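Take the subject:
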Amino acid sequence: MTDTLDDHLTKDLAARAAELLHTLGAPTPVAGELPARTPITGGTLMTLPADSRDDADAAIGRAAAAFRGWRTVPAPVRAGVVRRLAELLTAHKAELGELVTLEAGKIGAEAVGEVQEMIDICEFAIGLSRQLYGKTMPSERPGHRLMETWHPLGVVGVISAFNFPVAVWAWNTALALVCGDTVVWKPSDTTPLTALACHTLLRRAAADVGADPEVHQLIQGGAEVGSRLVEDERVALVSATGSVRMGRTVAPRVAARFGRCLLELGGNNGAIVTPTADLELAARGIVFAAAGTAGQRCTTLRRLIVHADVVGPLLDRVAGAYRQLRVGNPLDDGVLVGPLVNGRAYEGMRAAIDRALADGGELVCGGERVDGFGDDAFYVRPAIVRMPAQTAVVREETFAPILYVLTYRDFDAAIDLHNGVPQGLSSAVFTADQREAERFLAADGSDCGIANVNIGTSGAEIGGAFGGEKQTGGGRESGSDSWQAYMRRATNTVNYSDRLPLAQGIQFG
C-alpha cells in the first residue's frame, strides 16, 4: 500500500510535533494506547501511555501531600511559580501556539492568542497574590473585632475540553496556585500533547524558583481517569469544562461527597440586532463570533435575532463575508476557518442542519464539506440558516459553525427569544439606542453570565469573571472575584477585652 499525500503530511506534522515537544522541554512520550490525533489530516501524530485509575489515585495522593506544605507558603511567594510560568510561556509562545494548532486545529492567530491569554491570567494571578482580601466588620460587642480570612482550599481537580486545550487550564491553575492549592489536571484525551507541554513548563517553573514541582499533577486518559477526580474526597474542588451531559454526571457525584464544583458547560449564545445598529460593525462582530474556531467555542454565536426591518441588509453583509472565508489547513497563511475536531462533530452539524430544514428553515449559505483534505479530516463551510421560529434544534447547542437567524418586531419579544433556551453563557446586543442597551443589561434583560453591547459573544478578557447561568453551570473562572472559588472562608471574632459579652445581648447564668 502506497502512502497518500495525507499520510506524508501527517508524518511531517508528527515530526514537527516531536520537535516542538523537545523545544518545550517535554520528554519524548513512550508509545502507548492514547492517540494524539491532528484534525488537520485526521491522522495520528504519536501515541502516549494512558493513566489507569490507580495512577490517578497516586497523583491525587501526591497533590494532597504537597498541599500540606504549599498552603503555608506566603501567597506573594507562591506567585513566584506563576511569574516564572508567564516568562516561559512568553519565551515559547510561538511553539506552544503551533502545538495547539496541530492538536486542536485552530488557525495560528487564535492559537497564539490562546497562549497570550495564559500569560494574561498569570499576570492577573501575580497581582492577586497580594490582594486575597478579607473584610473587617463592626462587632456589636465592645472590645471585639469581627473579620473574615481566606485560606487555601486543598487539591483542585481540573477537567478541560479540547477547544481551549491550554487557556482554561491556565485560568484555573494560575489562580489555584496563588490561592495555595495544588492541582491535578485531566485534559481532553484529544489534546494530550499540549497538556504534556504545559505540565512540563509548569514543573520547570516550580523547580526554577525552588518550589515543590509536586504542586501540579497531570493524568492522561479517558473518562474513567477523570472519574477519580470526581469521586475522591481528597479533591476539594472539581473545575470541569465540557458538555451539559458531562455536567449532569459530574455535579451530583461531587455533591454526594460534599465537594465543590465549578462548572463551565454548554453555551447556545444569542445576539440581538436592532434597527439602530451599525450594521457594518455588527456584521464584523457576528462573523468572527459565529465562524471563528470553526464554531467550536463555548461562546460561539449560534442564534442571531434581527429586527425584521434590517434582516435583509444585515444578512447580505454576513452571508457575503461567509462566502469569502477561506477554509483550509490552519497552518496556511490566509486561512480563517480550520477543521472540525473529528467526524462526530461533522455528523452532528449535518444532522442539525437537516433538522432545521425539516422545521421550515432556509439554508442561506454553507454547510457543505470541503474536499481535498482526506477522508479522516473534516473541513466545512460555516452555515447560515434562516428559521421561522426557535424550534427544538435551535434551542440545542450544536458544537459546529451553524448560525440560526430569527426575526422580531418588538424588543421585549427579542429578549424573550434570546432567553428562551436552556443555556445562559454569553450574549450581545447591537444597538445605538441607550435604552435598549441598558434594558439588555438589566435584571429583566439578558439572563446570561456575559452580556455585551456592540461586540460579539466571544473573545472575553481575563479581567472579568467568565461563566454562565442555567445549564451553563453557574461557575465563574478567570478574573474579578473568581479566586474565591479556590479558597475557604473563615469568620473570626477576636475578643481583646477582659469581659465576655454574648451576641444578641444573651444573658447566660
In short: The first helix runs from residue 5 to 23. The mean pLDDT is 97. The chain is about 40% helix and 20% strand. The CA atoms of residues 16 and 99 lie 9 Å apart.
